[in-house]
Amino acid sequence: MKCENCIQFEKQLKSLKEKMELIQYELAQYKMERYPKKKDRDKDDKDSKTPPKRRVDYSGIDYDYDYGV
């Protein structure tokens, strides 16, 4: 036999777990809407008219520049 407090505690625990799952689902939906996947962002960058930024390593080598080698 379980005491009355244990039964109430288990009911509260179950309801809190359900609320937590709902909040996690809503958070995941929000993140998907707010932050698109990387490949979607890259596609948007290709459509823009601005040239891509140059990638310069800390060693000073500009990888986007053609050195004629």
Quick structural gist:
The chain is mainly alpha-helical and 69 residues long. It has a domain at 1-35.
Question: Could you characterize the architecture of this molecule?
Answer:
- With 69 residues, this protein is mainly alpha-helical.
- The protein has a domain at 1-35.
- Helices cover 59% and strands 0% of the residues.
- It is built from 2 helices and no strands.
- The chain is rod-shaped.
- The protein starts with a helix and ends in a 22-residue tail after the last helix.
The assembly state of the depicted protein chains is: single chain
Count of alpha/pi helices: 2
Shape: rod-shaped
Question: How large a portion of the residues is in β-strands, by DSSP E?
Answer: under 5%
The major β-sheet equals: none
Structural class given helices, strands, pairing?
Answer: mainly alpha
Poorly predicted regions: none
Q: Which series of helices and strands comes N to C?
A: HH
- Chain-averaged pLDDT: 76
Report the count of strand segments: 0
Name the helicity range: 55-70%
Distance between the ends: 83 Å
- Based on CA atoms alone, the radius of gyration comes out at 26 Å
Question: What is the strand and helix layout of this fold?
Answer:
Blueprint lengths: L3 H31 L3 H10 L22
Key structural traits:
single chain, 69 residues, mainly alpha, 2 helices, rod-shaped
